[in-house]
């Protein structure tokens, strides 16, 4: 590349670091929180890119935020992404690396630093949380560290913005220097590292760069060579190595790096091992206060109680606190519709605008309060350090399904709404486990099923009849539906985990970081990112499907005069004809074509079943007050004079709704989170089949037992 | 003995990391290398996982994972 070209091109600086070191805060401060959120190709690990704020150059350096990782060895998705970005496996290699290290926890943080040094890229270190390190007496002198490593070190306190200006200056002064870029720092193996030497000798001739031999070796030991994008020749060489030698070589390699960490810390006046050996209990100085908090929060009895309380709070907030705002949005959409209807006058275009476009936009933004609230809570829990404790407490229970504790919050949130719940699975690091959790979530009985259950119980059962003490028939049936949904989600999750998405029990290896006050601005920014993400990616699909569904339920239009007595316009629509066409399939589960039309309508959202059935029976505004509809359903008779719907058919319909994926928004979000239509398609088909079979079982067994 | 057999509040030194694959690599890279001091801080409320302290930080491992770590007192 010519010098002139280089001048005009912005430097690309990757930001790497362990989780929980304040990397996001540093990135947000350096970019002024003006960044683009994107995705790494093919998977859903997020990438963020932003320009350095306050740069003096016309082409301000671009900062690329990598996922927080403890290592660059590709053992899981996050590490693989960091590794591939830094080595340029997917696109061009960055020009430099900003390493964010936790000054209060250097003994572990330096391990990643040594791996990054092996890449041969210019580095700058942000020695973050230096205040905490000084407070607990483990702070290294930044100048000493700089001298020991030979690269610029800037002490920062990202929470308070300390050191950011200096860091900006240092980064701004970086130049793409091909000389430094060619000098990877590799720790040479000693004569005692026999296995490592054997492996490196065998691989160095094939691997393009000497550092690459080490990555290939580590990836092979982790069983993830494919994540390294190894060439045919490399693969052949690696596979020719004795597995036992590879394992031993990796032990030696990691040991070598940690020996270097200890040597570095020793030269800076820190002897980690001696600190432990003189029997002082405070061998984790940064954790002293947190250990006291944990005496309560992970206490044998109090811990689970606090956990339940926190979960109840989250659940309550998305279940009920979001309700008033959602009500406002719905009311706003309704009044906007009537204003537009008035302005445009009656006509097809008006209907398209009000019942298609405006209703569609309403269907999208109605989710925003729940998504924002859930991510606000998750952000606070993650940043404060409590989320790790929650996973610690609940891991034992989730391990039975084959998942780790991180799946708990998404599953719980599923009781309120699958949309934010599915989006919150991003905290799960393994893609397979994330998909298992995503597939489980829509089975959790979400709040949109309630109006459906209420309608059916109200119409076909004696809801208020006391059955057992204070319990009524309606209450027990409702409880039964929730139990069925929960048990089914857990059972299917366990099944998927053992078959379709077979994988080992995800390792826990979960850091319990020191408790910290979350930085409000970072949390709010995260809430906004997630919400914007939903509006952009899932919102467009939801809007489009709303318009299509409106068309199906409206066309072809018929003149009211043409309708037979008792017939409604919706029967003549495409959806109406379809409902009638699938009636033979619905009869075995105790339903008729009217329910069939309702099922098509309810694909927009489950509760739409109520208003669609209202249209079928010619009742306006059934979603505001379902009493008239309940009466009609209860009294509806077949031609033979028998009741059209019975408690048994009602039960079958409810069971159908426990399992069926009657929610386009869920599918839109799953597509967004899994990066394609494969999983949403699987979800739709499998859930519909399960729903049908379950309803069939209920109805047919019920009939055999003599119920009608 | 292995790390899962350690009593809460006790310390030990890692002697060897057994097993192979991603789990072993991860344990090593988190700092569980032979010679390092580890303390078992506590067990989770339901008995599993374990909270451990090493190299100045706290990390949680399942007992099955801790079984890969041979220790000496």
Low-confidence stretches of chain A are 1-7, 273-282
Assign the CATH class of chain B. Mainly Beta
Question: What's the CATH C level of the domain at 3-182 in chain A?
Answer: Alpha Beta
Please, how many domains of chain B?
A: 1
The counted number of beta strands of chain B is: 5
Helix content of chain A: 55-70%
What is CATH's topology name of chain B?
Answer: SH3 type barrels
What strand line-up does the widest sheet of chain B have?
A: 4-3-2-1-5
Provide an overview of this structure.
The complex is a heterodimer of chains A (708) and B (73). The model of chain A is unreliable at 1-7 and 273-282 (pLDDT under 50). Chain A has 708 residues and is α/β, with parallel strands linked by helices. Chain A contains 32 helices and 10 strands. Chain A has a 7-stranded mixed sheet, sandwiched between helices. In chain A, strands 8-9 form a two-stranded antiparallel ribbon. Helix content of chain A is 59%, strand content 6%. With 73 residues, chain B is an alpha+beta fold. Chain B has helices spanning 22-29, 63-66, and strands spanning 11-17, 37-43, 50-54, 57-61, 69-72. In chain B, strands 4-3-2-1-5 form a 5-stranded antiparallel sheet. The longest helix of chain B has 8 residues, at 22-29. Classes of the chains: A alpha/beta (708), B alpha+beta (73). At the A-B interface, α4, α11, α12, α13 and α17 of A face α1, β2 and β4 of B. β10 (510-511) of chain A pairs antiparallel with β4 of chain B, so a sheet runs across the interface.
């Amino acid at each position: 590349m010519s010098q002139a070209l280089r001048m005009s091109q912005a430097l690309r600086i990757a930001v790497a670091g362990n989780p929980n070191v304040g990397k996001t805060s540093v990135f947000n401060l350096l970019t002024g929180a003006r960044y683009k959120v994107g995705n790494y190709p093919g998977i859903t690990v997020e990438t963020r890119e932003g320009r350095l704020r306050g740069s003096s150059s016309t082409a301000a350096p671009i900062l690329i935020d990598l996922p927080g990782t403890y290592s660059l060895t590709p053992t899981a998705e996050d590490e693989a992404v960091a590794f591939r970005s830094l080595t340029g496996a997917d696109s061009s290699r960055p020009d430099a690396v900003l390493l964010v290290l936790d000054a209060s926890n250097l003994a572990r943080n330096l391990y990643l630093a040594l791996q990054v040094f092996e890449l041969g890229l210019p580095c700058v270190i942000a020695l973050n949380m230096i205040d905490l390190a000084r407070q607990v007496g483990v702070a290294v002198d930044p100048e000493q560290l700089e001298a020991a490593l030979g690269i610029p070190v800037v002490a920062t306190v990202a929470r308070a913005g300390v050191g950011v200006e200096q860091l900006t200056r240092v980064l701004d002064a970086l130049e793409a220097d091909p000389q430094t870029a060619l000098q990877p720092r590799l720790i040479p193996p000693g004569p005692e590292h026999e296995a490592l030497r054997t492996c490196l000798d065998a691989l160095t001739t094939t691997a393009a760069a000497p550092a690459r031999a080490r990555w290939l070796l580590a990836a092979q030991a982790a069983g993830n060579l494919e994540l390294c994008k190894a060439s045919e020749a490399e693969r052949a060489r690696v596979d020719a190595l004795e597995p036992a030698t590879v394992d031993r070589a990796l032990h030696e390699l990691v040991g070598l790096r940690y020996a270097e960490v200890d040597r570095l810390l020793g030269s800076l006046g820190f002897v980690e091992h001696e600190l432990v050996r003189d029997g002082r209990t405070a061998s984790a100085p940064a954790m002293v206060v947190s250990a006291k908090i944990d005496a309560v929060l992970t206490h044998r009895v109090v811990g689970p109680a606090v956990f339940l309380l926190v979960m109840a709070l989250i659940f309550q907030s998305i279940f009920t606190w979001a309700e008033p705002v959602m009500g406002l949005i719905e009311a706003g959409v309704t009044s906007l519709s009537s204003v537009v209807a008035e302005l445009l006058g009656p006509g097809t275009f008006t209907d398209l605008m009000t019942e298609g476009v405006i209703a569609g936009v309403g269907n999208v933004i109605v989710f925003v309060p729940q998504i924002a609230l859930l991510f606000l809570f998750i952000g606070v829990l993650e940043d404060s350090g409590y989320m790790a404790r929650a996973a610690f407490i609940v891991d034992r229970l989730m391990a039975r399904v084959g998942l780790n504790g991180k799946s708990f919050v998404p599953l719980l949130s599923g009781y309120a709404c699958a949309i934010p719940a599915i989006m919150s699975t991003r905290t799960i690091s393994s893609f397979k486990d994330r998909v298992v959790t995503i597939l489980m979530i829509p089975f959790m009985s979400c709040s949109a099923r309630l109006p459906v259950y209420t309608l059916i119980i109200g119409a076909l059962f004696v809801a208020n009849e006391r059955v057992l003490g204070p319990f009524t028939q309606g209450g027990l049936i409702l409880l039964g539906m929730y139990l069925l949904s929960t048990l089914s989600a857990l059972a299917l999750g366990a099944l998927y985990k053992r078959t379709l998405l077979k994988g080992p029990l995800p390792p826990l290896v979960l850091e319990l970081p020191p408790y910290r006050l979350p930085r409000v601005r970072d949390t709010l920014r995260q809430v906004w990112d997630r919400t914007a993400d939903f509006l952009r990616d899932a919102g467009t699909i939801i809007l489009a499907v709303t318009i299509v569904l409106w068309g199906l339920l409206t066309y072809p239009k018929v003149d009211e005069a043409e309708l037979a007595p008792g017939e409604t316009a919706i029967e003549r629509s495409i959806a109406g004809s379809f409902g009638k066409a699938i009636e033979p399939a619905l009869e075995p589960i105790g339903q008729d074509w009217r329910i069939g039309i309702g099922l098509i309508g309810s694909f927009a959202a489950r509760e739409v079943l109520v208003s669609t059935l209202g249209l079928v029976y010619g009742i306006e505004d059934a979603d505001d007050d379902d009493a008239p509809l309940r009466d009609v359903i209860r009294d509806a008779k077949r031609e033979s004079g028998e009741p059209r719907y019975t408690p048994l058919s009602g039960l079958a319909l409810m069971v159908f709704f426990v399992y069926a994926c009657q929610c386009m928004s869920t599918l839109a979000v799953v597509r967004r989170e899994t990066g394609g239509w494969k999983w949403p398609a699987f979800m739709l088909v499998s859930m519909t089949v399960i729903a049908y079979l379950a309803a069939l079982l209920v109805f047919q067994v019920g009939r055999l037992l003599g119920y009608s | 003995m292995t790390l899962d057999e350690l009593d809460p509040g006790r310390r030990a030194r890692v002697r060897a990391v057994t097993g192979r694959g991603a789990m072993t690599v991860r344990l090593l890279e988190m700092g569980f290398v032979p010679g390092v001091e580890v303390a078992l801080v506590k067990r989770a409320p339901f008995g599993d996982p374990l909270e451990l302290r090493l190299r100045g930080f706290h990390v949680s491992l399942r007992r099955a994972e801790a079984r890969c770590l041979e220790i000496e007192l």
